[in-house]
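Contributing new records

If you add data, match the layout below exactly. Sequence lines come first and carry their own label; structure lines follow with theirs. Keep one chain per record. Anything else will be rejected by the validation script.
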Amino acid sequence: MAQKLKKDLLGSFDRAAGGIGRYFAWCTILLLICLAAYYASIIAWGWDYLVESPHLGWGEDAKSFFFEEILQISDSIDDWGGFSWPVILGLIATYIAVYLSIFKGVVSVGKVVKWTVPLPFLFLILLFINATTLEGSFEGFKFFLVPDWSQLGEAKLWRDAIVMSFFSTNVGLALTVTYAQFNTKDNDIIFSSWMIGVGDFLVSFV
């Protein structure tokens, strides 16, 4: 739709379904804002651990370090406590990184993607090689690769698989629609969809 119309999410949905389309487009944008805030918090924790990693600040008790030093969780929901400065500083670093990545639109995003897309693949390969050298790795691969056929009758298994597939391939979210507007009108979108599905499966498998 966006590829043919050359419009963004709001424009495409508005052209397709008028007011109802705009309503669903804004609902999608609101959902993405919530997701962005959620993942920004997780990335903020990553900054905190990056700062602490040179001297292994979490020591022998990583769980206590996370809850007491990073989150600084209070004793109960009735006790608001104070602000967690490690999380706040991590969030500031995260939003600065996000701004620098998108402030020039597709131009700046394209430059960032040249690094952020291949690096996870490199890390996955390194982690895979490292996993093969660990004690008990054969049993772990066996547990991962040999299916338990009895689980196919569990509804929860299918529900979780469908949710993960929709989420990881971005079905129903704005990213694919947004990027589609930059395709040429004669782009083979069916082939692109197949490539996204196969690529998503391979990355999830590794």
